[in-house]
Write a structure and sequence with these properties.
mainly alpha, 3 helices
Length: 91
């Protein structure tokens, strides 16, 4: 952990813990390939940059940012508990 950004450090620790438990936290990145493997056609993978909060100027992106922030805040405790309590080794 060399970042000066606390949330990035937090994410790295939780990801390490989830990986140790066998939980693939970035599974969405391989979703398109999995869908193609199972016979789906016309599959697109598109990465959208969305704000984490309501600072976007466009009304739709502002609403998406609010939903994303709410989702992250509600999920932090459960993600932390799974990743840090059983998966992270002592440092």
């Amino acid at each position: 952990m060399t970042s000066s950004l606390p949330f990035l450090n937090y994410h790295e620790v939780v990801t390490e813990g989830l990986d140790a438990l066998g939980i693939h936290s970035n599974a969405a990145r391989e979703e398109a390939a999995d869908l193609k493997k199972y016979g789906f056609t016309n599959v697109r993978h598109e990465v959208l940059k969305v704000s984490l909060g309501a600072w976007a100027k466009q009304k739709t992106l502002k609403l998406i940012g609010l939903y994303l922030r709410t989702s992250v805040l509600l999920g932090l405790e459960g993600i932390w508990a799974a990743g840090c309590s059983g998966g992270v080794r002592s440092r």
